[in-house]
Specification:
The structure is a single chain. A 6-stranded antiparallel beta barrel has the order 1-2-11-10-7-12. It has 2 helices and 12 strands; from the N terminus they run ββββαββββαββββ. The N and C termini lie close together (8 Å). By secondary structure, the protein is mainly β. It folds into 2 domains: 3-111 and 168-199, Double Stranded RNA Binding Domain (2-Layer Sandwich); 112-160, no CATH class. The mean pLDDT is 91. Pfam families: Ribosomal_L3. One of its GO terms (cellular component) is cytosolic large ribosomal subunit. Keywords: Ribonucleoprotein, Ribosomal protein, RNA-binding, rRNA-binding. It comes from Candidatus Yanofskybacteria bacterium RIFCSPLOWO2_01_FULL_49_25.
Length: 200
């Protein structure tokens, strides 16, 4: 399984040879450095730890942890599984090729406290026939029995800022010289969001 960390740059569109417009997301991917190989005997589980980016002001514990890797990464992520193929020192975006189907995970845009209409797509109340000040209210949140609101009731609250994965994205192009890749469609998050990219 190919795996790399990247940063969302933004969306654009490209034109295929047959004239079809393809919406794509540009991702600045890699390179990532292997900082630690975890084994079931020592750590209790098998995993490969990767580092991405460069920390501006690394503290001493972080510097000591990544001393053997020869880098001070800004972000650390783990890929579980005792995979001997991951024992290389560094991975670049060139491990992907056009046509690969990938799954991309990241945090969605955080939109703060939102009402039920925006957060859950409620239609709201009628805007006439005596209604006033309630057009975007939730409405009934329960019944006479059991006399309390049931867990999971869709109401207003904090929207976004959660981890989300998008599957089935096709890699359109890979530029190893500039460490960028383009995938068809949209990926979670805003510009600059940290993304985990892996083949399915």
């Amino acid at each position: 399984m190919a795996f790399i960390l990247g940063k969302k740059v933004g969306m654009t569109q490209i034109f295929r040879e047959d004239g079809i417009v393809v919406p794509v997301t540009v991702i600045e991917a890699g390179p990532i450095t292997v900082t630690q190989l975890k084994s079931p005997d020592k750590e209790g589980y098998g995993a490969v730890q990767f580092g991405y980016g460069v920390a501006k002001h690394p503290n001493k514990p972080a510097t000591g942890h990544t001393k053997n890797a020869g880098s001070n990464p800004k972000t650390l992520r783990e890929l579980h599984g005792d995979d001997k193929a991951m024992e290389a020192k560094e991975f670049a975006v060139s491990i992907f090729k056009p046509g690969d189907i990938v799954k991309i995970s990241g945090n969605t845009k955080a939109r703060g406290f939102q009402g039920a209409v925006k957060r859950h797509g409620f239609h709201g109340m009628p805007a006439s026939h005596g209604h006033h000040h309630v057009m975007r209210h939730v409405g009934s949140i329960g019944q006479r029995f059991p006399q309390h609101t049931l867990p999971g009731m869709r109401m207003a609250g904090r929207m976004g800022g959660k981890r989300q994965s998008t599957r089935g994205l096709e890699v359109i192009s890979v530029d190893a010289d500039h460490n960028t890749m383009t995938v068809r469609g949209a990926v979670p998050g805003r510009r600059g969001t940290l993304l985990e990219i892996r083949t399915q």
